[in-house]
Amino acid sequence: MPDPLGPINAGRRGGLSFQLGPIPVTIHISFLLVMGFLGITLGDPLLIGVWLVVGAASVLLHELGHAIAARMAGFEPRVELAGMGGVTTYRGERSRGWSLFITAAGPGLQIVAGLAALPFVPGVGIVYRGDLVEFALSVWVVVSLFWGVLNLVPILPLDGGQLFRNLVPGGPDTRTRVAEVVSVAMAGVGMVWALLSGLTIAALLAGWFGFANLQSVLSGRERRSGTSTVALVQRAQDHFGAGEYDEAADLAGRAAQRDTADTATRTMAGSLALASRLRAGRSRDAYRMVADPRHDLAFNEVLVAHALAAHPNRPAVQRVLDAGRASRDEARPRGITAIVALLHGHPSVADDVLATGPVSPAVTREVERIRAARHA
Predict the structure, then answer these.
(1) Euclidean distance between CA atoms 276 and 281, whole angstroms
(2) Is 5 in the same domain as 145?
């Protein structure tokens, strides 16, 4: 399923990583363990191995559908398979039409691939009559059609739930509330049906999704009141997704300044506020936020690192630097920016910011160390 994380991308680490063309892919051991467990009833280790490889290939194709569509929209996606499925992450937002296209591309490609193999097997079901090729094709059909159709059920966070949310009229808050309520109802129906059909794993999955959406529905009143820090961040994310960057910047900025917020929430709020200011063309506000003495050094480094990661194109980063040149006495944020620019592989950006004024000896030593390490 696609995950337009916008200003935050906290992906997992580890696993088998490789490139499929321009798309980075990571397959985590948790995904292989779950797939192996689902195929354990086959008994034969060889059949379980075929199930594992073919099933993983089908799920990977699903995520590649999202990723290819995301690249068509101008994003740089990455794919991860973990747990009971996969996720395609990318930074940024596009129109609702692009969101629908990216979301639908995953299950669409997977279902088409399953239907393409259907003429070569006796039917929709796993069969083994001594022919491994026929067995592999039957696994491909079952996983592709089952996983593709399952993901179209209108339950968040499945693709169907995200499609439904984007089709509901109204603003981001309204669409999310309606989608959550429908998700709870659909999950309840799905859990009952799965239990009556003897599908224990499907029932547990439906119950899990239903409970998560129910929690969100029950906490909706507090979230909509805008009193909690988390509520401010969620409202800011909704505005950011709708392209309302000024509103997102103000709400996320309020959340980042609250002493009651935990570090993770403040970091998320700060990154979102910085991204919103950049998108809104408020580069001076963005620079002043980075230079705010109320933030500690680590927090400021996260903010500047985000600016470089979320806006790697030179003009976007340059807007922050140009705004910063108006405050030549602010050596601290200038030094942080230079160090993070080097760490993110932007030596020319580091040179630009160091040329705007003096930095501390500690920053100078660190800059020299990083450059020496990169040339070693």
Answers:
(1) 9
(2) yes
